[in-house]
Amino acid sequence: MLKHFQSNSYLFGGNAAYIEELYETYLDNPASVAEYWRDYFDALQNIYAANGARVNDIAHAPIIESFAQRAKHPAQPVRAGGLATAHKQVHVQTLIGAYRILGARWANLDPLRLQERPAIPDLDPAFYGLTEADMEQSFHAANLYFGVEQATLREIIQALRDTYCGTIGAEFMHLTAPEQRRWWQEGLESIRATPDFSSERQKRILEQLTAAEGLERYLHTKFVGQKRFSLEGSESFIVAMDALVQRAGAMGVREIVIGMAHRGRLNVLVNTLGKMPADLFAEFEGKPGGDLPSGDVKYHKGFSSDVSIEGGPVHLSLTFNPSHLEIVDPVVEGSVKARMVRRGDTDGRQVLPVQVHGDAAFAAQGVVMETLNLAQTRGYGTHGTVHLIINNQIGFTTSDPRDARSTLYCSDVVKMIEAPVLHVNGDDPEAVVFAVQLAVDFRAAFHKDVVVDIICFRRLGHNEQDTPAVTQPLMYKKIAQHPGARALYAEKLRAQSVIRADDANEYMKRYRQALEEGRHTKDLVLSNYKGQYAIDWMPFVNRKWIDAADTAVPLAELKRLAERITAIPENFKLHPLVARVIHDRQAMGRFEAPLDWGMGEHLAFASLVASGYAVRLTGQDTARGTFTHRHAVLHDQDRESWNGGAYIPLQNVADHQARFEVIDSVLSEEAVLAFEYGYSTADPKTLVVWEAQFGDFANGAQVVIDQFISSGEVKWGRVSGLTMLLPHGYEGQGPEHSSARIERFLQLCADHNMQAVQPTTPAQMFHLLRRQMIRLLRKPLVVFTPKSLLRHKEAVSQLSELAEAAFQTVIGETDTAVHPKKVKRILVCSGRVYYDLIAHRRTIKRHDIAILRIEQLYPFPHKAFGAELKKYENATEIVWVQDEPQNQGAWFYIEHHLYEGMKPGQKRAYSGRPASASPAAGYYAKHHEQQKALVEGAFGRLKGSVLVK
């Protein structure tokens, strides 16, 4: 039979693609192909062993290549009848592939039916020469998942249209993994994308629609004209959220972290997370929900709760976020990552990130792409995110989709990470539930992102004060005539005798009564429940500012740590430059050399992890350090790092130590910094550090700094101990990479919201990093770190300074030749310029000028600074000296602090670069000229800005 098949079948070059797909189907399940194909592939692969067991003796690639070679040669002559049948089978197979690829474009997805279905020739049988006469002919259908091996062309087309052109439009053929494509084909085709829900499930869906619509109507009548970013027209989204929580919880997910912007947020708070309606109404009435210094509008607020479902309690957390829409995405991912680490959840089975997007923002906001790019990376991946798009087809005020994006679908950006997309008609809530269930299942099976695009509409404007008909007259005529998803679904259930005629109205009455009474509208919200992995934040909340902390480490422990972080595995070959660094650090640990910056930092990290504090250090070149000072990861020069050739000493400082991880991030600031912020808000016991490659790179993440880091606590009560390391220093390398924009951070400082620090010695950095964790205080820490000082011969410390001292907010004069009573002028500075000043003073031999260093710019150390000033009772002049232009740096922030510390009759002055539109000079000669002038000016005659108190 096999010989007859080979001489009379489809085995000619033109059918190579069809044969290859059949072969893939055979590999997945040999029984799924016809017997004659199975015999052919069995013989071709020679897969029968002597004992009759089936094994794969040869690679698949050569067989696939043989099919490709067939395609390069003319078809071998076969009988006319067989050739015609073969051609038709190939065309049928191509038609099937077209539906899988393009069926979504012809699906019934728009509740408003604003546009006619497009003409898609590839979905027309006539495009392949198939006619009405072929409709009753049987064709091979085993590679479909319809449960039959043979079916007529009419049956095949109807099944394909039911599956791919109904109220769900699936996009998955762009996935390169065959097993993932087959997963979607089986999941959709086996039931023709039409779920069969029980009557109880259908009633639950109606209840969810009723709750979604009921809350919006209640708010619309009770709080007329107030902004709430209504969900009306998109009520099926609440159905989707309920389905997601139920499905994920049943599969073992114990925490779900949700990020979303404004649309439908209040509805989610009440109907998904179970926020008390009375509390929401109080916010509408302008009553504060707490004693935060600032607070925020109701549609920015987050919330958390624990709900009981069939699989057990699930903790739901809706993340706080500002109006910058998608910026919350990486914050959510960071929070999820921290929770996974805390649980030891290595495959994402216990914690699920859920991102809710608007159609316009998802397509337009660059941080979406940045966040997606993190999805499969080692340091940032969360094993798949479920994305839900509330697609109201209009975005903000766009009058034409062509102005909203350049892609066909708003979700097309996710194809960069091969995420599947299910577009679903919001008027079919059962399809919405089915799509969400598939999404959750796919994420669990393959640990990848997946998108459900709920296509709906927006009954009101962008906010409730908008009149969208001004720019969208035809759309809003159709919206005015639309009865709503709840009414449509209630009518469907009445027609199916699932509910009685008055049941839908009864649902509405019960829900409204709950709202009137201000009580829970969601069943099974757990009160006073605390899960095993919940974090107690109370020790860190409402803490008053303190500078002091016992950060010293015993000398014996420091020596032990120094030995551990400089120990190299046997037969591990270091690069000569790195070998020298390790050799120098070994000498530092033996008191044979002073500590440089890298060693001081390493000892800080080592002492923390040895004490039980975890450390997470990330940035674009963090493992090595942008200026090659860190070398936290060592590379064997004879082996690739991915093949066991990397060694991290800080992971080996003690037999029982906390986690240390250092990650070279993707080339992103915005998403990565937001990720680390999110991580820090979920784990107060980890020192979370983000290092910019250069300080000015932080401005690529300015929205994160402005909206989360500097203001998250006063707006939302969100506590974060995130640390930012921003290399800063004027080295004559041009306007880029000189300035970390100190002035911007200081402008944001208020209410003890964060710390801005510029340390000048390794010991200071050691104590600063340790202080960040040892104090029961979690505030963002911004550190303006040096560049040239990393190897400066005077910017060093002794090991004893780590064992005896603590972080100094102000460092006074250290030269014993400067006698306090003889000092006439006090130079006050911060950062690298200090070393220029002491070098110049040494050159000109002036001992009547003292130099003070402000190490902590904010909160300003009034007490310590005042104590230093009192030492110089005869000083008549106080001069602030900085590298930065006068309109930048710390001058405008610090001048009033200097004034407060001055005595009557003292003069205050400034010495630094003149005001400039650019952060630094681009010409080295000009830089050198300006640097020389500001240093000499600090010691010369006062001029320019002089104020007498």
TrEMBL record:
Q: Where is the Transketolase-like pyrimidine-binding domain?
A: 595-792
- What reactions does this protein catalyze? N(6)-[(R)-lipoyl]-L-lysyl-[protein] + 2-oxoglutarate + H(+) = N(6)-[(R)-S(8)-succinyldihydrolipoyl]-L-lysyl-[protein] + CO2
GO MF annotations, alphabetized: oxoglutarate dehydrogenase (succinyl-transferring) activity; thiamine pyrophosphate binding
Q: Which CDD domains does its entry note? A: TPP_E1_OGDC_like
| Recorded superkingdom | Bacteria
Q: Could you say which EC number(s) this protein's record lists?
A: 1.2.4.2
Query: Which terms under GO biological process does the entry name?
Result: glycolytic process; tricarboxylic acid cycle
Q: Does the keyword Heme apply?
A: no
Q: Which InterPro entries match?
A: 2-oxogl_dehyd_N (IPR032106), 2oxoglutarate_DH_E1 (IPR011603), DH_E1 (IPR001017), KGD_C_sf (IPR042179), ODO-1/KGD_C (IPR031717), THDP-binding (IPR029061), Transketolase-like_Pyr-bd (IPR005475)
Q: Which GO terms describe its cellular component?
A: cytosol; oxoglutarate dehydrogenase complex
* Region forming the signal peptide: none
Keyword Metal-binding (UniProt): no
Per UniProt, which keywords does this protein have? Glycolysis, Oxidoreductase, Thiamine pyrophosphate
Q: Which top EC class applies here?
A: oxidoreductase
> Which cofactor does the UniProt annotation name?
thiamine diphosphate
Tell me its family.
Belongs to the alpha-ketoglutarate dehydrogenase family.
User: Function, please?
Assistant: E1 component of the 2-oxoglutarate dehydrogenase (OGDH) complex which catalyzes the decarboxylation of 2-oxoglutarate, the first step in the conversion of 2-oxoglutarate to succinyl-CoA and CO(2).
User: How does the annotation summarize its subunit structure?
Assistant: Homodimer. Part of the 2-oxoglutarate dehydrogenase (OGDH) complex composed of E1 (2-oxoglutarate dehydrogenase), E2 (dihydrolipoamide succinyltransferase) and E3 (dihydrolipoamide dehydrogenase); the complex contains multiple copies of the three enzymatic components (E1, E2 and E3).
Please give the NCBIfam families that the UniProt record associates with this protein: 2oxo_dh_E1 (TIGR00239), PRK09404.1 (NF006914), PRK12270.1 (NF008907)
Record-given protein name: 2-oxoglutarate dehydrogenase E1 component
Q: Which gene encodes it?
A: sucA
